[in-house]
Design a protein that fits this description.
Length: 106
């Protein structure tokens, strides 16, 4: 085997193995009122599977959050988020699909 190919494989294979063992999950969507379907601005998105990971929806109700990096062998860990806003019931979701999340008024 040529020297450059051996060097390439010696460097790339370990890097690929390390890369495949780390990963993260994300959740994204739009938070809406359950009755009016209006987007909810400034709803709190708390990522329960990551320490100190809190974000808020924007003016269109959109959010996008991710877990911190973690082991993915045999699979990536789930992401669990809690969505809250004063005047609405809290919603907790585990690995939600992208799309709308509806909050119900109290």
């Amino acid at each position: 085997m040529k020297k450059w190919l051996r060097t390439f494989l010696t460097i790339c294979i370990p890097l690929l193995l390390l890369y495949s063992c780390e990963g993260y999950r994300c959740a994204e969507g739009v938070v809406r009122d359950k009755i009016t379907f209006a987007p909810i601005d400034s709803a709190k998105i708390n990522v329960l599977t990551s320490e100190d990971k809190i974000k808020y929806t924007d003016t269109t109700g959109a959010f996008n959050v991710c877990n911190y990096m973690g082991g993915c062998v045999p699979r990536c860990k789930e992401i669990t988020i809690q969505i809250s806003k004063p005047g609405y019931k809290d919603v907790t979701l585990t690995s939600p699909d992208s799309g709308d999340v509806f909050l119900e008024r109290l």
